[in-house]
Every structure is written in structure tokens, then in C-alpha cells.
Specification:
By secondary structure, this protein is mainly α. It is built from 5 helices and no strands. The chain has helices spanning 9-29, 39-49, 53-72, 76-93, 100-122. The mean pLDDT is 87.
Length: 128
């Protein structure tokens, strides 16, 4: 039945992972201030949200997708790149910094922190 909507398994998997990324982003957006904020405040807000079990489940799936991208390449690589680019853009749009370049660098650092935390959680290492 799904073959009516997707050309192949790769296209289906890419769509599923994109949807997971969108769901996670929507969940995170619920508690993020509407106005732009400094990087530390945004990271603090996102860090607090990462304690939520629903967010942790999504994060774990995205860590697994990233691992599959490294091991198997496509379609995981493309889906992971798209999700990461969208998330970086979303974070940058919430940052109160002067230039686009500064916002993108800060968004990258925030993503690295959150993704590192998700990886550690996937390994069973919880934050203090």
C-alpha cells in the first residue's frame, strides 16, 4: 500500500525521519520564547526540554538515524542533513545576535551540545 505513495523504501524512510524531525522541532517550539534570545538562554530552555521523555525518545531515534547515515549512507545521510539544516535554521532564527553568521555559529554550538547530550543518553549516561 505504501508503494502508492513512495517510490521505494529509501523514500519512505526519508519521509519518516523528516516527520520525526518536524515533530521534535514542534515540541521544542512550545517552550521557546517568541522573541529572539541570547544563546545561553536558548540553550538553557532547550536543555530543560530535553529532560522530557517524549523529547528523549525523538532524540534517540535521530541519534540512531545519524548512526545509520554513517554506516549505510543513503537515504539516512540525506535525511540527517536535511533535519540538521532545518534545526540549525530554526535555532538561528531564535537567537538575538547581530549577524546571520553569528547566529549560525551559535546555532551550531547549541546543536553540538544538545546532540552530544542525546548521544550520551543513548549510551546510558544521564546528566547530573
Amino acid at each position: 500500500m505504501l508503494l502508492y505513495y513512495f517510490a521505494d523504501k529509501d523514500e519512505l524512510l526519508a519521509a519518516v525521519f523528516r516527520h520525526l524531525g518536524e515533530q521534535l522541532q514542534a515540541r521544542l517550539a512550545a517552550d521557546v520564547p517568541v522573541n529572539r534570545v541570547d544563546a545561553d538562554r536558548l540553550l538553557e530552555t532547550l536543555w530543560a526540554q530535553s529532560q522530557d521523555r517524549e523529547v528523549q525518545r525523538h532524540s534517540t531515534l535521530l541519534v540512531e538515524m545519524a548512526a545509520a547515515a554513517v554506516r549505510h549512507g543513503e537515504p539516512y545521510s540525506h535525511a540527517a542533513q536535511v533535519i540538521a539544516a532545518h534545526f540549525q535554521d530554526w535555532i538561528a532564527a531564535h537567537l538575538d545576535l547581530d549577524s546571520d553568521a553569528e547566529r549560525r555559529r551559535a546555532a551550531y554550538r547549541i546543536m553540538a551540545t544538545l546532540d552530544g547530550m542525546a548521544l550520551l543518553r543513548a549510551l546510558g549516561i544521564d546528566p547530573p
